[in-house]
Amino acid sequence: MLNGGVDNKTRLEVLRLIAELDNPVGAETIAGRLSDRGIHLTVDAVRYHLRVLDEQGFTSRVGNRGRILTGDGWTELQQSLVDTRMRYGLARHESLAQQVSFDLDTFSGQVVGSLAVFPSEQLERVLSCAARACRAGICVSDRVALVKGGEKFGGVLVPPDKVGIVLVSTATIDGILLSHGLLFRLIFGGLVEVAAWHPYRFVDVVDYGHASRDPVEILIRPGSTRLHDILEKGHGILLADVREMVSTARERVRCLLGGIERRGFRGVLMIGEVGQPILGIPVHGHTFGVAVVAGINPIVASCELGVPAEFLVNEILVDYASLEPVDLLVPESVRMQGRAGGALLTRAEAAG
Q: Which of 31, 77, 80, 312 is within CB 3.0–4.6 Å of 115 for a Cys-Cys bond?
């Protein structure tokens, strides 16, 4: 009978081995395969783990030939793989944030970049939308880099008939916080309603701890955002996320984020009050929330116009010096036509 799932990493690895071999397998074979993976157990120890898995209902003995997975065993294994991906996605964001070396005094160092890939013939349209969104403050930074077809961004090869654009990710903001000794815990990614250029509330969220991909990637779907409505009227929906921080750090966080905003980084939607919901998202009594727009928003704006794109959020570290203002990549005639109707009222402006 099931007792709530595999509670032991070794037993989970045994389940994976049985699934990979796809035939009844005995303790001796399992012990040998585990040893190849750096897990050294005696045959008797493997038999013990198999007995536990039998009792949990995840494996079943087939005569003297060995064990196979039961239906519940397959379900448990699939769930465990999802759990692993969940942990990986969050760990990836945190790992990249820890490697950010951007220096606010010299304005140099590495930042985290996200990649969007789209058809080459749509480049001018995408850049125009991105520039307009950046002017309205719907970005982390207005700096971007282009990746031509046939070139690589990290481990990703951009197809010959496409082009990639690299934007600064919200993980960069988290990296700057960490570099100043300010710890955070990502809690939600979601969709924020904007009214009269003010962030109003989250209307949809995905828990960072329960998603096998970055929540922002999950929420990039047709009809989910209304970025052009924001650009034209100051009312719409954009992508953002929330991190939770301890109450004693609030004044330091407020000063630091205000400082980086004055240096050109944008997109801090709000710094919440201690123990109070931020844009409708609850936080613990000893913490406060910080909401930041998703760095990929400027490209999502062109997707609303029908441009097909693939996104890789929080993909790799890039040298800030290799990025340039998106306005410089847009023809002047197009630039003059693409003025937004206003600008997002961010935290620093609201505080002033």
A: 312
Counting as low any pLDDT under 50, the low residues of the chain are: 1-4, 348-352
33 with 52: CB under 8 angstroms?
no
Q: Cβ atoms within 10 A of the Cβ of 213, count?
A: 15
**169 in the same domain as 27:** no
Regarding whether 284 and 156 lie in a shared domain, the answer is yes
Statement to judge: residues 174 and 316 lie in one domain:
yes
Express each pLDDT in 29-55 by its tens digit.
988 888 776 677 888 888 988 988 998
> Across the strands, what pairs with 110?
319
Beta strand residue intervals within the chain, DSSP E:
59-61, 67-69, 110-119, 143-147, 152-153, 156-157, 162-168, 185-195, 198-207, 236-246, 268-271, 287-293, 310-319, 324-325
Alpha helices in 200-293 (DSSP H): 215-219, 227-233, 250-262
Q: Of 67, 94, 121, which residue constitutes the final position of a domain?
A: 94
- Which uninterrupted H or E stretch holds 335? helix 332-337
Judgement on whether residues 255 and 159 belong to the same structural domain of the protein:
yes
Partnered with residue 278 across adjacent β-strands are 281
Same domain, 180 and 295: yes
Count structural domains, the chain: 2
Contact 245, 284 (CB under 8 A): no
pTM greater than 0.90: no
What is the DSSP annotation of 314-333? EEEEEEGGG-EEGGGGS-HH
Residue ending a domain, among 94, 116, 135, is 94
